[in-house]
């Protein structure tokens, strides 16, 4: 993987975007890389929009704001201009995914295969780890995930092998 890499993840409150951004940044730091993560979210606990900007680099990061993401991930409908991104992933639940987006069933897999709507973000994390070419065996998830570790690891595995 060529670094730096910039992500923007946009979803609804309750989709676990804040935790997802934090875990991605912590994994990068644990691997000796530099990482920044910034959040923008509505005051609503559930249903409001949440956006996480994550930058991972082998060098010092001068600007943590992601205006032109390498990877834009959308888990709910929003107005971000997807044409600014190199790659766009959308969850299957997005009503109008951007043209050219790769659509994945992150939250459907969580609900139907794992019987939990709370781990859709971890399914997504698995897909991101695959994209970053980070082997699951190289990450000690217990350092970053404190609740329901076994279920979260199953969710990560599902996402890692998602086509």
Automatic annotation (TrEMBL):
Keyword terms: Oxidoreductase
Pfam family, one: POR
Domain (Pyruvate/ketoisovalerate oxidoreductase catalytic): residue spans on this chain: 13-160
Keyword Phosphoprotein: no
SUPFAM superfamilies: Pyruvate-ferredoxin oxidoreductase, PFOR, domain III (SSF53323)
Keyword Metal-binding: no
Listed GO MF terms: oxidoreductase activity, acting on the aldehyde or oxo group of donors
Source organism superkingdom: Bacteria
Name the record gives this protein: Pyruvate/ketoisovalerate oxidoreductase catalytic domain-containing protein
Species in which this protein is naturally found: Candidatus Wirthbacteria bacterium CG2_30_54_11
